[in-house]
Amino acid sequence: MLTVAGVLITGLGLVKFRQVKAAVAEHAAFQPPPEAVTTIVARQEQWPTTLSAIGTAAAVRGVTVSADLPGIVDKITFDSGKTVKEGEVLVQLDTRQEQAQLAAAEAQRDLAHVNFDRMQELVKAGVVSRMQYDQSTAEHRQMDAQVGEIRAMIGRKTIRAPFSGVLGIRQVNLGQYLAGGAPIVPLQSLNPIYVNFGVPQQALAQVRIGQNVRITTGDLAGTDFTGRVTAIDSIVDESTRNVQVQATLANPQGKLRPGMFVQVEMMLGASRPVVALPASAISYAPYGDSVYVLADLKGPNGQSYRGVRQQFVKLGGARGDQVAVLSGINPGDEVVTSGVFKLRNGAAVLVNNTVRPENDPSPRPEDN
Fold first, then answer.
1. Distance from the CA of 20 to the CA of which of 5, 29, 37, 86 falls in 20 to 30 A?
2. How far, in Å, CA of 342 to CA of 31, rounded?
3. Residues 252-263: what's their mean pLDDT?
4. Residue 163 DSSP symbol
């Protein structure tokens, strides 16, 4: 019985050994099915040398209209968000006390004027001394100045728009007491408008006054603004090593508002050759950007197959659906444009170009 049991165990062990050996051999020879991808043949194009930056819109003229003198709001003649002209009355403060003071001062001025005229006749006749005449002259001028001062005070309580523009939200109410300097309403001039953006110090030599810039914003898809560089800051920011540049552009419909986030594109020089690829072909990673190039590879068994190799690249700017590759890819290379996320170096692929990713330099809409 022991002999029979030993033979059975030995037989079972041999069978299992052969099964495990066959599974290992099958696993070693296993090849994953090829991944379905789309490709494009890289070609060289001439792209203009541009500088892209992030900018902020700023009003050419913008203030918060405030009260010059303290007083009680008597009239409000504007609505929030409306367009006003230069000199248009916005708020009238209560001037009843000043009006009464003006009436009293005008009466005193008229009396001083009558006395001055009388003194002129008397001094010519030698009835009064020259000192009395000079005193009457001083009183006359003093009353004129006092009347002018009260009128100026009344005028300062009539708050007007300092320039034409668009009002913000009203910050005062009828009957409210305003202290000197209290805010009333923001006022911004929107046409033209400034765009401020930073330029790296190494590109500063290529920036000139009068250079054209193109302004876009994601909030206004399909709308482009064109302006010119009008000012370059005289200092370099020590924290960013950027120089602030200011562009001025027309904004007739007021679509751009102060504080808006915009993208700035500025032409820097002549065109340069680049390899343009769809943005979907780029595999972005912290250690470097790369693409997958189709090639004929050999497997462990020595057989050839259609696979991909990972190629690290240096990227330039973007235009529509395309990204400029400055180095790492040669014209004529066949590059994977979709399915990049599921590939690895040496993976087998199956090309199916029935449906390809967009590759338009000027898509409509722009965020297509």
1. 5
2. 16
3. 85
4. S
Same domain, 147 and 168: no
CA nearest to 179, candidates 65, 71, 63, 75:
71
In a domain? residue 78: yes
Dist. CA 226–CA 195, nearest whole Å:
11
Note the pLDDT of residue 292. Answer: 93
Alpha carbons 26 and 28: distance in angstroms, whole number: 5
pLDDT digits (tens, 9 = 90+) for 184-221: 889 988 888 899 998 888 888 888 888 888 888 877 76
| pLDDT at residue 326, rounded to an integer | 87
Confidence of residue 238 (pLDDT cuts 50, 70, 90): confident
Q: Rounded to whole angstroms, how far apart are CA atoms 112 and 120? A: 12
Whether residues 170 and 198 share a domain: the answer is no
What is the number of alpha carbons within 13 Å of residue 286 lying toward its C-beta?
0
Q: Which pair of tokens denotes residue 40? A: 């494009």
Which of these three, 231, 248, 269, is where a domain ends?
A: 269
**How far is the C-alpha of 139 from the C-alpha of 147, rounded, in Å?**
12
Please provide the DSSP assignment of 255-282 as one string: -S-TT-EEEEEEEEEEEEEEEEEEGGG-
**DSSP alpha helices (H): ranges in 90-129?**
96-125
Checking if the pLDDT of 3 tops 90, the result is no
